[in-house]
Protein 1
Amino acid sequence: MSWNRKHLLDIESLTVEEIWTVLDTARAFKAVGARAIKKVPALRGKTVVNLFVEPSTRTRISFELAEQRLSADIINFTTEASSLKKGETLKDTARNLEALNADFIVIRHSASGAPHFLARVLNASVINAGDGAHEHPTQALLDTFTILEAKGKIAGLKVTILGDVLYSRVARSDIWALTKLGAQVTLCGPTTLVPRVFEQMGCRVTHNVEEAIADADIINLLRIQHERQRKTMFPSLAEYTSLFGLNQARLARTKPDALIMHPGPINRGVEIDTKLADDLNRSVILDQVEMGVAVRQAVLEILSHSLD
Ligand code: CP
């Protein structure tokens, strides 16, 4: 097993071998998840705190199920009912959680770098569940695992990421993971949301959606991240949908086996036509959710060795 770290903070710093360690381990956990008894004792006696300071549906419940299946003790931290609301700092909150002998802190935070900060001040293993517009490493690992399961390979595939790339932590983590594993990544969206500076990450940038999706094996859609945009980045949602939304007519001009992905939450009728979102022949959006549990089990199990 190739893995030499206590925390999972980003994809940027992972080696290709470390990414494959997670994907190979996830495949084993996927097989365990198909059994009648899905629970294993890998984290028995270990305590995991799910510190979600920003809203989440998929990542939060996926981590919680992964932890349950590994037999961990779990603390679900709720911001609204916490002393963060009374002005307690993130550092003090996390130190109090660690005083309860937490072995893992899974943190989602609106501030980029919050997980890296906790990793410096805590003894627990820290897992980044999404920090601002920086990274969302377990999403990229589950996206990569979903592609691998569907296509049997990553190297050589053409992956188009379409939408609000600028404010997307998923895009950044996906770009790191996919390019490291040899995929050809194309980014597309309005010029304000897909600046050419992303070419420095090894991607092709185009603002022509037909060109971006014509020969794609994977079309990974992103929602408009209104909560992070500091100003209006395009004239209207209707114009965005008209110019960049994935609809039946556009999909008809793609490869017949091109798959549609989306990290969620989806905005039906904006970045994706509602019928396409439910088209199980083309959409693997719910497969991504399913793969997320196996991938998060893999990450927790691998990191648990650094606690021994
Ligand atoms: N994909 C993702 O991060 O979704 P949530 O915000 O619901 O966790």
Protein 2
Amino acid sequence: MSAKLIDGKVISEFFRVEYKLRVDRLIERGVRPGLAVVIVGNDPASQVYVRNKARACESVGMHSEVHALAATTSQDELVAFIEKLNANPAIHGILVQLPLPKGLDDRAVIEAIHPDKDVDGFHYANMGALVIDESRYPPCTPFGVMKMLEYENVRVEGKHVVIVGRSNIVGKPQAMLMLKAGGTVTVCHSKTDNLPRFTRDADILVAAVGRPCMITGSMIKPGAVVIDVGINRLPDGKLVGDVDFESAKKVASAITPVPGGVGPMTITMLLGNTLHAAELKAGLVESARDTMLA
Ligand code: NDP
């Protein structure tokens, strides 16, 4: 068997076409959705991510601003900067590129973003809303995974979903979204004993670990849907996921590639969340986002 490829670039494009129409509708009402991306310091990888996010905004007609602050920026200066963005009516979403340089407190900075503009969905208020199924801004990567499954008509309801990784930005919010969609969810992590015992029972397997090719074909149930969130750069510069693609594709029924799988969806969901923030502000939609997948 060779698995069907779940192409994140194609699915992203599908959503972006819809977003563009919604942006146009807002512009007709005099509102251009705006995203401010704040980056502190000069980490080259982060600068590439930030530029990609800004470009993606422009591709659907949204306004974007990149604020590159010096590595010497203090916590107080950064918080004061975010407060100005909180008060700026042209900005509907604020994203601070993480991790911040040493000496700055990621969590305190996230809490400085107004929850209405927290399009990454990491503020306590938005994380709490996610847990009680009232999320306005589901974190972009796990939300992108749900949208990929929806696009591919993969039913989550009744399925055993195994997530490897329990980070606050991927594994945990992914578990919440899968639960909401009716999955029976197992979350594995570095302390899990006998990981293959769980992965081999997964109907839907999500790998979000950060270890190159650690999930091999022999750890996958025949016919499972495999979603590879991991992005790992090998010494030769090649990008690979957490799943060993070559052995996994012989066992799975569908699989995401790396690159070109979950990555493009993450940026697209950021656009979706920013657009949703602008629509909320304009009174065009009610509060929760449609994250249901039955
Ligand atoms: P974290 O490092 O925050 O979390 C990794 C998780 O993997 C932890 O929960 C850890 O367990 C678990 N883990 C580590 N080793 C093992 C192991 N041997 N067996 C089982 N579980 C293990 O990473 P992130 O969640 O931030 O990111 C995960 C991956 O996804 C990375 O490769 C990252 O680059 C990528 N990523 C991709 C995105 C995209 O857009 N495609 C967006 C965000 C991340 P424990 O909690 O016990 O330490």
